[in-house]
Amino acid sequence: MVKVVxxxxxxxxxxxxxxxxxxxxxxxxxxxxxxxxxxxxxxxDLKVHEEKETITTxxxxxxxxxxxxxxxxxxxxxxxxxxMVDGVRNMIPTARIGHIGMYRDEETMIPHEYYFKLPVVDxxxxxxxxxxxxxxxxxxAAISAVKQRGYKNIRLMCLVxxxxxxxxxxxxxxxxxIYIAAVDEKLNEKCYxxxxxxxxxxxxxxxx
Length: 208
What we know:
This protein is α/β, with parallel strands linked by helices. The chain has a single domain (2-49, 65-205), classed as Rossmann fold, CATH 3.40.50.2020. It is 33% helix and 34% strand. It has six helices and twelve strands. The protein is globular, with a radius of gyration of 18 Å. The model has no long low-confidence stretch (mean pLDDT 93).
């Protein structure tokens, strides 16, 4: 499944992020807010269960305490994926965090894994985070790396992508749902998304 989360609030915030005049602080703030808003769709189908523990409302009513059925692991692809973590954790403070290090060979465009660490949790939902879905190479490699470690319930959460990248992921991993805020026009000769956001990592961390 591919779900485009094109809520009007997301569209406006994404437009701010696209502006080349937007500084790192404002870029990060809008990324946080979009990631939080996307959570309503990414986790819409999760179930909750009633625990033995109860809560008491201010009016004296006693209700069972509710808890998500799944333990959530956020797995940002380094480094830009880190920029989406806080926005999701604002909605799910109990989510555990892993990291997937990928770098892309500038000549071959082939991704290479250099770091991988996820929390050890029984039957979790793993949400791989990466703002950009361009060729789909890094996303496919990250999903493969997660599967190779035995994780099965996986979703991909992105900000901006192109159809080429979406098709690459759905072909390689048809069992992985993709959630994305915008599908842009195309890739340029350097495999940057157009109109895109520029280099998301540089803009998040102010390295350019």
